[in-house]
């Protein structure tokens, strides 16, 4: 089952968007080499922008840190096939935003 391949570390997304985001990650991994993190992240970002409006940000990789401000209800940090994904919607201009720090160490 696909759900068994996904390990969610943290999220505040509604369940339906979590499922969509993790399915997009799997599809991106099928379409691109695992080492091409830029293309993987770009694919996910474009699909989320189309489905849920612009301002989505996606980071894919195995060793990164971040300090972000994001729209509440848009954050997820998860792993698929050994690659970590940080996805959120920019909350800089929103009144429902929050700040947080996350890191992933390979």
Automatic annotation (TrEMBL):
UniProt cross-references to InterPro entries, sorted A to Z: DLC_sf, Dynein_light_chain_typ-1/2
Keyword Cytoplasm annotated: yes
GO cellular component: cytoplasmic dynein complex; microtubule
Main location: cytoplasm
Keyword Cytoplasm part of the UniProt annotation: yes
GO molecular function: dynein intermediate chain binding
Record keywords: Cytoplasm, Cytoskeleton, Dynein, Microtubule, Motor protein
GO biological process, one term: microtubule-based process
Location in or out of the cell: Cytoplasm, Cytoskeleton
SMART domains assigned: Dynein_light
Family under the similarity heading: Belongs to the dynein light chain family.
Protein name: Dynein light chain
Originating organism: Dioscorea cayennensis subsp. rotundata
Phylogenetic placement of the source organism: Eukaryota, Viridiplantae, Streptophyta, Embryophyta, Tracheophyta
């Amino acid at each position: 089952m696909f759900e068994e391949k996904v390990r969610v570390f943290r999220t505040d997304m509604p369940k339906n968007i979590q499922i969509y985001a993790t399915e997009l990650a799997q599809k991106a991994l099928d379409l691109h080499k695992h080492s091409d993190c830029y293309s993987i992240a770009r694919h996910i970002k474009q699909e989320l922008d189309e489905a849920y409006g612009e301002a989505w940000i996606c980071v894919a990789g195995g060793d990164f840190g971040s300090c972000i401000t994001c729209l509440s209800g848009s954050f997820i940090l998860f792993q698929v096939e050994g690659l970590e994904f940080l996805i959120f919607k920019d909350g800089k201009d929103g009144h429902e935003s929050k700040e947080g720090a996350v890191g992933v160490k390979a």
